[in-house]
Amino acid sequence: MKKVRIGAGSGFSGDRIEPAVELAERGGLRYLVFECLAERTIALAQLARRRDPEAGYDTLLAARMRAVLPACRRQGIRIVTNMGAANPLAAARRVAEVARGLGLSGLRIAAVTGDDVTDSLRGTDAALDEGGTVAALGNRLVSANAYIGAQPIMEALAAGAEVVVTGRVADPALFLGPLMHEFGWAADDWTRLGRGTVVGHLLECAGQVTGGYFADPGLKEVPDLARLGFPLAEVSEDGMATITKVPGSGGRVTAATVKEQLLYEVHDPARYLQPDVVADFSGVRIEPAGEDAVRVSGGDGTARTGTLKVSVGCHEGWFGEGGISYAGPGAAARGRLALEIVRERLRLIGHEAEELRFELIGVDSILGPAAGAPEPREVRVRVIGRCASPEEAERIGHEVDSLYLNGPASGGGVVKSVREVIGIRSCLIPEAEPRIGLTWVEA
Amino acid sequence: MILRDLAHARAGDKGDISCISVIAYDPAEYPRLEREVTAERVAAHFAGIVRGEVRRYALPGIGALNFVLEGALGGGVTRSLALDAHGKCLASRMLELEVQADGSKAE
């Protein structure tokens, strides 16, 4: 039976680059996929593109391509990535530039466009998940990008693309596209599309299936995380797969690491909604298949819903934040006093915030207050608020800063910041709405 | 004993929803997980952190439960004021849940 090896070169925009090079050089791959686009990343990329029409794609695009293109060209490995973010065309041109710089002339790059539905959605009464409509966002709307499916990726590969650069695409579809192309899976072969989605879902976070985000010393040991290997799947025509990694790389692939990733960010496992299929993970079987190899079978799927999820970015004001540390005997009491002082100060100066939060890191900042917990040796005061303007946000850090000379004894290490808040909401649109297109660029 | 003695967990986020998997180290322990780690108990365990409904999905084939906790992320990852806006640490909180030691587990 025909088998295809497909690897994951990144699981987020800031991911390590060496494991991708390792996969390209020693993974025996046919495809190398780079997933780099979190919910919020694309909205930030849209803002970058507005400032510079040639920007708006992943900032590590050129570095990644420079690192892997030589090995990929040599071995005929084709690359699929959503590093195009808000500007797949400019990204494709950049890839061509990098390829020319490496002497790899003739490289065929396809840019997938059409996921950006900002203009067609602006001012419509499309309903947002948290209530309200897109129209009600008014000029707070930053971006609207549809999670499109695997079809255009498959078409680009069929037409000979060596690199496919997309914007917003459902993460598993980055992997499903190559599998549909290789095996000729029909667009309504729900079982195989479901299985391909299982594979894509397991790989899309890269190191999170090879032992990353898993270690818990004394309980769940993972060797050599500093040299964590990224995953690859050997997939057969029926959609069954073995998840593994390059021998000698760090990390581990076990039934446990694969199970954690299978359920990662999944709601109803029997209905994992994708643009191409509703995947069903409920009958998936996960079995060890040798050292750092796990066999995955039993995925399924049902007909897709006919709608696409749209990630809607909007301006939500500004975060202002300040922190200061207290240590030694009485640290928590001085920290609490500091919080009270800042709270009172913000009231006295008539500070306006949509939301404020006062907490002690090391005491109650993550899990809330706990009765009877031992007093820590050191605490960090954290005050953060969301405000309508950067000026108002800045006043929060200023009040924390002023604790130096006006607050409790022995506080140190003030850090303050102001940053813009881009919130993400979502809505649904009919699948036929985005006008998907392919544009070719040659190195 | 606590849940951490027999299961591992990972948390993910979507909007204001946290999803947390609970996976038995030994699939033979799955019936105990199913019995002990109910949606009601998990909701009570996260009182003060989770404001909405808690739903549970069973995956006996891999010895796991999947929990969906609504209203868990301070109004949504992207505008939450929380230090851990993604609620990643909630998986560790999940593993603090007390479970009945029934003695049938070979040590």
Shape of chain B: elongated
Structural class of chain B: alpha+beta
Give me the number of helical elements of chain B: 3
- SS strand fraction of chain B: 25-35%
Secondary structure tally: strands of chain A: 18
- Point out poorly predicted stretches of chain A: none
Radius of gyration of chain A from CA coordinates: 24 Å
Mean pLDDT of chain B: 92
The helix content of chain B is 10-25%
Number of domains of chain A: 2
Please identify the oligomeric state. Answer: heterodimer
- Mean pLDDT across all amino acids of chain A: 97
Largest sheet of chain B: 4 strands, antiparallel
Q: Largest protein interface? A: A-B, 51 and 34 residues
N/C terminus separation of chain A: 35 Å
The ordered H/E elements of chain B are EEHHEEH
By secondary-structure content and strand pairing, the structural class of chain A works out as alpha+beta
Nearest-angstrom radius of gyration of chain B? Answer: 14 Å
Q: What is the name of the CATH architecture of chain B?
A: 2-Layer Sandwich
Q: Tell me the span between the first and last alpha carbons of chain B.
A: 13 Å
Assigned CATH class of chain B: Alpha Beta
Provide key terms for this protein.
heterodimer; A: 443 residues; alpha+beta; Alpha-Beta Plaits; 10-stranded mixed beta sheet; 13 helices; 30% helix; B: 107 residues; Threonyl-tRNA Synthetase, Chain A, domain 2; 3 helices
